[in-house]
Amino acid sequence: MADSTTHHGALMDGIYRRQRLIYDVTRKYYLLGRDHLIDQMHPEPGAHILEIACGTGRNLDLIGRRYPGRVLYGVDISSEMLINAHNKLGARASFAQGDACAFDPETLFGQARFDHIVMSYSLSMIPDWQAAIAEALRHLEPGGTLHIVDFGDQARLPRWFKAGLRNWLARFHVTPRDGLADVICAQTGVEVTFLPLYRGYAQYARVTKSPA
């Protein structure tokens, strides 16, 4: 696990060492559905919110502005992306480097579980994405909610568009997870809302953990 984590972290740092400087400007045109996820959160005052693979901190920044008075955390495997996140949010959030598939938030943040966990366009870049979902649910409070948005199956879009998009995404080590809905619905002790967005370009899932 340590070797694969180190390799993936180095890969992400290599990709984002320069891209992080233009990431937020360029990604707004094709990472669709992120604002939909934020609109659907409705966290209670004082809620603890973690974003796994938080990248530049773009989502946490908007979450903090939309829902003031919440406690924000971000974890990412890329030290390069965390530079941007720290610069963007400063003391408004706590950040740490960690692997989405295996991390200890109590050691990193002094907080074992969270009321809301966000995974935005991250599963399509995590090799063992099923393990990342299980890890997120493990760190969720009973009654808490995991929010996911990512590339969909593009089922209602032209075939040429789907083929072109996926070939382009593969250049950046991105693979849409067509089996996401099945994997989430197979989890025990959760209530799932799943919604394709923009004719299947993206997919959104809201996974609420059963109360204790």
UniProtKB/TrEMBL annotation:
GO terms for molecular function: methyltransferase activity. GO terms for biological process: methylation. Keywords: Methyltransferase, Transferase. It is an enzyme of class 2 (transferase). Residues 49-144 form the Methyltransferase domain. SUPFAM superfamilies: S-adenosyl-L-methionine-dependent methyltransferases. It comes from the Bacteria. Its EC number is 2.1.1.-. This is Putative methyltransferase YrrT. It comes from Pelagimonas phthalicica. The gene is yrrT.
